[in-house]
Amino acid sequence: MNWNFDATQASTTELNQMDIGREKEILRKKIKKKKKKVEKNNPLLCESESEISEADKQTPQKKRTQTFDEIQDKSNRIVEHEHLLATLQQKIDKIQITSAQKLDEIPIQITVQPGSYTKEKNEFTYISTQSEYKTFPINPAVINGIFKCEMKINNLGDIYVGVMKSGLLIPFDRYPGELPYCIIFRQSGPVYQNSAELQGNQQMKDGDQIAIEVNLLTTPRTAHLFINGQQQPVFVSGLPKSVQFWFFLHHFGDSITVLSLKKLNVPNVTKIPDEIKMKWI
Fold first, then answer.
1. Which of 83, 173, 229, 251 could serve as a FRET partner for 154 with CA atoms 20 to 30 Å apart?
2. pLDDT bracket for residue 2 (50, 70, 90)
3. 135 vs 168: CA distance, rounded Å
């Protein structure tokens, strides 16, 4: 009896162990199946940490690198746009300045008799072709304002510039210093008016930019010479109400260009310590 009981008990124990083993195997399969399902939905997860690829480990660093590169690229594009805007603004400012200057400019005409000179096309550049006195009045006459006429000495032989009473006619072969109502700024420095002379201005030379500024608003009315922007000490006071600018060519090869005639809002003339006044006679 005892032996049969023990055998039956042993068989029962073995059966229980087998059932437990089967349940463990079934549970293990279920866990494995769930794990595969999770890994399928999330490729970043692997069966173990040792199975994580090096590429996956570097994914956050790649993202940071990509983000930095994108920021740098955007920053570079912003700098380029700012540079483009600055360039455009400079062009706009230049156009505005040029437009403002052109509004102040007065269209000029130079009409003289035929003679020993040539004129460059589309500009007021005149060249003497032989020795002859030639005076070129610049139109229009100016009145009631502040005006500046700018010229450039291209080739200096015997060239004068000046101001005369409007409407004065000086024929070729006539020296302008022989006539009244005419101011002469000579290339060698002296100032002539009606046979009177005063020394003190610097000599002109090739390439110099010459400007004569007349103030017909002040009393007495004045004329000042500028050479390369520098005001000269000898000036003329007591001008008539209306005047014209002019230039004079004499020797072969003398050449001058009239650059502009402008009306100014304010004078460029200042009080200088060594100034010398010549009275218009």
1. 173
2. very low
3. 11
